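Reviewer 2 asked us to include a model.

Predict the structure of this chain.
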Amino acid sequence: MKLLAPVTSLVLAAIPFILRAQGVWCYPQARLVIFSNYDGGRLTINVDEDIPDLHIGVVSYEFARIGITGPYAGNVAAVHYAGYDGDSDHCNTGGVLTTSVLGVPPSIVSINFAPPASIGDSFGWPSIICGYSCEEGQDQGGCNTAQQVTAYFQSLWGLAPRFHRTQYDCWEGDWFISQGGNCCAGALSTGLDPVNASRSPLAWSSGDQLLVNEPGAFQLIDALGRVVLRDGSAAVGSRSYSTAMLPAGTYNLLFDDGRVMRMALQR
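Predicted model (structure tokens):
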């Protein structure tokens, strides 16, 4: 087996940051879908595709009434809401003015009020409270950047996004999983600064070993968005990991602070 060392100059440039058209899939075989907006409202997610172990993340500023429906709703493994959860009902949602989730067992639902963002971003808020834009490098007016929203759920579950749907206005009508999203900002590419080119963040051995020289916890993610290797420690110095069982293909090494490297594994 031969492992090709990544080129540091490609840390950010080689991975597309922004995709805006509806029907966009970031990692078509992944099992995380993200919805974000400002106005909240009634968000009905129709799981019309057979995606085992599906994880759903939702962010908004005003409260959301989240309903999970569809022929494969039973595949949903987790639903997590992170946001401000404000109680303005200008979407005319009605009922109790706080976020709720229906259609799945309560045991797989979690609601987190304004949790800390996984990555810092000078254009976004330091807590996860709302998201409405896929624009990069623009102030979000007190909301989060799409990179922050994506990084939050990647860190929460260790999954890459299948798609991210973001908008400002109230949710309305059904949203079918088969529709995809409109944004891939930050998908496995949440680093805001290039890795220091004066030192190699990764070194590959000639055998079935991955040698990591950078400190910090990380995940190794395959092209389908699956975490195939994880080190949750903040170890300093070189660390070695066996890659003998991994198939050839493209992988992303995602550090918890947002640094990311794309690499090819060949045999």
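Residues 1-21, 189-201 have pLDDT under 50 and may be disordered. The CA atoms of residues 28 and 121 lie 27 Å apart. We have added this to the supplementary material.
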